């Protein structure tokens, strides 16, 4: 379906929903103002998500019932992935064979991906950095791969349950989240003290927070979706998971690692702020969420150039990957900001710096491929920009809207219509 036609369908559906919900509240001659999505959702009709627009999920669910072809195609892609995840997991940090430096298997642990043994020494120390080139030795810490599978499986399964009502999707997603975060024997401690260890050098780094911040907010949305009535996920589960996140947010905000990561100038700082904002919305701390969203304006001013480039990402050996990667964080916090009254999509810095300008900068690569991207890139994947361009188009960017039809389809199909929040589609960490 043409994008403009789809937008018209969504607008029509939203108007119908609003009128139906408002009808019992209005007098015969009253014309009540259109309330916010949050006010409309006092009856719990859609998921109270942290990043995704829960109302939009509800609209899409209704449109699926009307039989829109593009949505049926996306649903087939989604359920194919969900069916595959049904045979995998659950996952836990306690299944690893390497005990973390702190001695507690409940602590998450991973090894820095771009650091390699020194070929000139017997013990390989000190390790040497090779930017953008992943050392397969890092797979010895199984938490990292299991974490990625836990993130993706819980998200896909929860969405599949929401759109199909198939009980098996929900119960498996619930089991995956419960095993990783809640069950006493298998739960992860709410910290990242031992993430991205460099052998011979340290027992963890602030930079390791990226292991979670690059996708963890999707897990929050998975839990929110399950909390909207899914079998197998109880109110106690949701309350316990929220408490886990209260403790995790405290660690992210106040630990030395958390403070250091939040101050990072490149994508690490963007993701750290986005993650804190998303968790804050999830646990009901809108003050912190708003602080993080407002603070993002200074980051846009400092790290996005007036021409839309991101200089600290362009100097990497994977400049395309990291330029799109950083935009995952910017666009997600822009969606979080809408929930707390901060419009980052329309924000412009003193020299015109903006998220939309950064999207404009990558459109040529998104539609023209590697030949249109003149910066260093070890392995170019055009589809990395697919969600980003979709998000910008939905936020009113006409250049992005024109580019949508030219995007490279991500592996597994384009799921944007069913989960309209930007994801990292060219993961190089696994």
What key attributes describe this structure?
two-stranded parallel ribbon; lyase; 430 residues; Alginate lyase domain-containing protein; Chondroitin_lyas; Glycosyltransferase; globular; 3% strand; signal; lyase activity; single chain; mainly alpha; two-stranded antiparallel sheet
CATH class of the domain at 93-263 equals Mainly Alpha
Secondary structure tally, helices: 17
Overall mean pLDDT score?
Answer: 92
Radius of gyration: 22 Å
Rounded to the nearest angstrom, the distance between the terminal CA atoms is 34 Å
Order of helices and strands: HHHHEEEHHEHHHHHHHHHHH
What would your notes on this structure say?
By secondary structure, the protein is an all-alpha fold. It has a domain at 93-263: Alpha/alpha barrel (Glycosyltransferase), CATH 1.50.10. Helices cover 51% and strands 3% of the residues. It is built from 17 helices and four strands. The chain has helices spanning 3-22, 37-40, 54-65, 69-85, 142-164, 167-181, 210-213, 216-226, 235-254, 256-262, 267-283, 286-303, 311-314, 319-338, 355-368, 386-394, 398-403, and strands spanning 109-111, 115-116, 128-129, 194-197. A two-stranded parallel sheet has the order 1-4.
Topology (SSEs and partners):
Blueprint: H1 3-22, H2 37-40, H3 54-65, H4 69-85, E1 109-111, E2 115-116, E3 128-129, H5 142-164, H6 167-181, E4 194-197, H7 210-213, H8 216-226, H9 235-254, H10 256-262, H11 267-283, H12 286-303, H13 311-314, H14 319-338, H15 355-368, H16 386-394, H17 398-403
Parallel strand pairs: 1-4
Antiparallel strand pairs: 2-3
